[in-house]
Structures
1.
Amino acid sequence: NAGVTQTPKFRILKIGQSMTLQCTQDMNHNYMYWYRQDPGMGLKLIYYSVGAGITDKGEVPNGYNVSRSTTEDFPLRLELAAPSQTSVYFCASIRSGLAGNTGELFFGEGSRLTVL
Amino acid sequence: QKEVEQDPGPLSVPEGAIVSLNCTYSNSAFQYFMWYRQYSRKGPELLMYTYSSGNKEDGRFTAQVDKSSKYISLFIRDSQPSDSATYLCAMSRGYSSASKIIFGSGTRLSIRP
C-alpha cells in the first residue's frame, strides 16, 4: 500500500498565482486532513473532511479551498498565493472517528511551498 | 487563547535522563490525547494515544492525562540520542461530528550523547 501520497513535493509560486496540492490515500479512510507547518512550529489545521462531499474549516482556512468528491482524494487549492502561505503542507488520514480507534493519523511526506 | 499550548523548547538533556514534555489545553470537551514524534523533514508519527484521564505506558514512554487540570504529559525514560526530535501533542473531542484534531506547537528535544 502506498498510504498517503502528496504531490508535488516542492513548488515555488509567484505572488498571486494559484495551485492545487494533491492528496490521495489508498487505505479507504473516511477522515482526511490538511495541515500547514511553518518553520519551527507545530501543525495548524486548515481543512478537514469526514467523508466524500463533506468538508469543514479548521483553524486557518483563509486563502484555501478544498473539495472531497471521492473517498480517496482530498485536494487543497491555494488561490492568489501570498508570501504568508510559504510553509510545509501535510495531508493526513484516519479510518474513522477516534472512538475505538488507535488515534493514528497517517501522514503524507509533505509538500514544501514557497511563495515569492 | 490558543486551544492547545506547548512549550516550544528547545530542550537539551544528557543521554539517560528522564524527559518530561507537557501540554495544556483550554477546551474541556477534549477526550482523546495523542503524542506524535517528528524527525526533521519528515511527517509526524504516532507515539502514544490515550482516552480520557489516566496513565498509559509503552516501553520507555509514559503518557499522563489530568483532565481536571487540563494538562497532559509525556515522560521518556533512559533517553537516547535517537529520541532527538520534535514532540507534538494533539487532541480531539473525537466524536464523528467534531473530528478536528488539534496539535500543539511542538517541543524540540535534543539528547546529548
2.
Amino acid sequence: SVLLYQKPNRDICQSGTSLKIQCVADSQVVSMFWYQQFQEQSLMLMATANEGSEATYESGFTKDKFPISRPNLTFSTLTVNNARPGDSSIYFCSSSLGGQDTQYFGPGTRLLVL
Amino acid sequence: GQQVQQSPASLVLQEGENAELQCNFSSTATQLQWFYQSPGGSLVSLLSNPSGTKHTGRLTSTTVTKERRSSLHISSSQTTDSGTYLCAQFNMGYKLTFGTGTSLLVDP
C-alpha cells in the first residue's frame, strides 16, 4: 500500500489569496492525483501529476487557477490561486503502486475561503 | 461521459442488521473500487473488485462486469460503520470516476 500525508489538514483564507497544499507519499510513486470534493458531493478528479512533466488537467480545472508541482517521486504541491468562496471544499491527493492497482488517498485538506 | 450511480442514496439500520449497497456503472470497467468516507471526511479503500466476489472482514463485494453492476454487503452492521460508501470505476486506464455515494447511519 501507499501512505499519503497532506499538509495542512485544514485552512481558512481570505478571497483573493493563494494557498499551497502539500502531499507526501511514503514510497516512490509514478503518478499523483488531485481531487476536489464539495460538501455532500462526490470526488472529482482535478489533475494528474507525474514527475518532471507538466500536470494534466481535467475539464474545468486549469493550470493558472490550480498550479501543481511534482518535483520528485514522493512529493506534490497543489496551489489554489486567487481563492474564492466557491473553492471551499476538501482537496485530496491520491496515488497507487501502478496502473489500475488500488488507489490510496491522503486524509484531505479542508479549505474554507471567506 | 462516464457515470457511476449508487443506490440507495441513504440507509438507516439498527445495529446488527445487514446492508446491501448497489453501484451501477455506465461502461465496462476494468477496475472497480469501494471506499468508505468517515463523517470527518477521511477516505479509506475497502475493496478493489473488477469482477467476481471478494471478502474482507464483514464486507463482501460482488461485481458482475458484463451487467455493469457491483454490490457491497455489510454484515452485522455496527455504529462505527456509519458514514458514506463510495464506489469508483477506473476509466481511461487510471482515472477514477466516483459515484454519488450511499450515506449509511447505523443506530445503536
3.
Amino acid sequence: SAVISQKPSRDICQRGTSLTIQCQVDSQVTMMFWYRQQPGQSLTLIATANQGSEATYESGFVIDKFPISRPNLTFSTLTVSNMSPEDSSIYLCSVGQLLNNEQFFGPGTRLTVL
Amino acid sequence: AQSVTQLDSQVPVFEEAPVELRCNYSSSVSVYLFWYVQYPNQGLQLLLKYLSGSTLVKGINGFEAEFNKSQTSFHLRKPSVHISDTAEYFCAVSGTQGGSEKLVFGKGTKLTVNP
C-alpha cells in the first residue's frame, strides 16, 4: 500500500489569504485525488490530478479557487485561495492503485479560517 | 451517476454486542464497493472492498460485509464490537476502474461503542 503524507497537518488562517497543501507519496502513482470533508460531513471530491495534464474539477469546484499542481508522479499541491470561513474543512489527498483497485488516503489537513 | 445512502447517521451499541451499519447504493453500471473507517482526528483507512466473486467480504478488525445486488446493498457487520471500534464509517462506490475512478461516499455512520 502507498504511504501518503500531507503538510501542514493543520492550520488556522485569516479570511482572504491562501494556503497551499502538499501531498507526498512514497511511490509513483498516476492518479491523485483531492477531497474536502466539511465539519460533520462526508467526503466530496474536488478534483482529479494526473501528472502532465490539467486537473479535472468536479461540479461546484473551480480552478481559480482551488488551483492544483502535479509536477511529478509522487507529489501534488492544492491551494485554497481567497479563503472564507466556509472553507474550513479537512482536505485529504488520495492515490489510486490500479493493481488492487483501491484508493489510499493521506492523514488530511485540518483548515480553520477565521 | 452513482450515489450512496447510509441509512443511519449514528449507531450506539454496547461493548460485545453485534452491529450492522447499513449502506445502499445506486448505479446504472457495475460498481466496486468499499467501507472506510475514520478514527477521531485521523485519515481514512480501508476496512474492506467488494470487487467481484464471493458476495461475503471479510476485512480487517473482524468486520465483514455482504454484497446484495438485488437489494443494491452492502451492509457492514461485526459480531462483537469493542470500545476501540468507536469511529465514523463511510461506505463508498466507484466504477470498475477502481483505483483510477473517483469514490462517491455516503454521509457516514458514527458508531459509538459504550462500556
